[in-house]
Design brief:
Length: 266
């Protein structure tokens, strides 16, 4: 016989406090036994006296699916109360794009092949790298680097011994080159000649994103720095040096057969 409370729940909207939002402690249970997780959620459902079939949006996954994925931390995050948002979907899409970019370029400590490298949409999308610096490609005479400078952040007041071209793709900032200030925004390009002091800082409430071309390379081919502080530390400790082969002259590369005017290679 169906209780009065349960019968009433079938015709009424669920109370706000019945929406289950898992706590941090809940996530820690992801590595415990399936029985523990099932008992935990079943106990919660019985407390509110709401049949599982009445509100599938709370469970999101069937019990069978739940047990099949119990050992996956990711699937645990998608348990009761988990809701995908448009921001989550965007981040997931951007994450896949970033991995695609990293796979496209030469990120190994070796001379790149004589073939095209294509970065689709690199300049016209907000990438959300969430990394201060990511080297995407290193060639014999240049290097392509993606950067995301956080809100209230800066690239650093510095001088490079190589040419640098900065292509801004998102956000706003202030460029200071050789003592001259210039507001910059998405779509702008700034050239910093070798040996010129420069600084770039973020303006506004959005990160400043840009693509930098160094000529020749300035960083290790595999460099990924989550923060400016991490990058500064590696540079200070000599852990972020450009590959030796990327610092050769045109004559050295031609004499070594790495560059041929014929464009023919074995």
């Amino acid at each position: 016989m169906m209780s009065t409370d349960v019968a009433a729940s079938l015709t009424q909207s669920p109370p706000i406090d019945a929406i289950y939002i898992p706590s941090d402690e809940y996530y820690e249970y992801c590595h415990h036994s399936p029985m523990l997780k099932t008992a935990q959620f079943t106990s919660y459902r019985l407390t509110h006296k709401t049949p599982s079939y009445y509100r599938p949006a709370i469970t999101n996954l069937s019990r069978t699916q739940r047990l099949q994925n119990i050992h996956s931390t990711a699937s645990c995050k998608q348990g009761p109360g988990f809701k995908h948002t448009s921001e989550d979907a965007s981040r997931h899409k951007d994450s896949g794009r970033i991995q695609k970019y990293k796979m496209a370029g030469n990120r190994e400590d070796k001379v790149p092949k004589h073939e095209m490298v294509h970065f689709e949409g690199l300049l016209n999308t907000e990438r959300r790298f969430a990394k201060f610096r990511t080297v995407l490609h290193t060639g014999l005479y240049s290097q392509l680097v993606a950067m995301e400078v956080p809100v209230n952040g800066e690239i650093g007041d510095e001088v490079h011994t190589v040419d640098q071209i900065l292509l801004f793709t998102s956000g706003r900032g202030l460029a200071t080159v050789a003592g001259k200030d210039q507001e910059v925004k998405a779509g702008d390009v700034v050239v910093v000649p070798a040996g010129t002091q420069h600084q770039f800082v973020t303006r506004g409430d959005q990160p400043l994103e840009l693509i930098t071309v160094y000529s020749p390379a300035e960083h290790d081919a595999k460099t990924v720095h989550k923060t400016k502080e991490e990058g500064d530390e590696e540079e200070d400790n000599g852990k972020d040096e450009a590959p030796e082969w990327s610092q050769k002259s045109k004559k050295e590369n031609e004499d070594a057969g790495l560059v041929k005017e014929s464009g023919k290679y074995d």
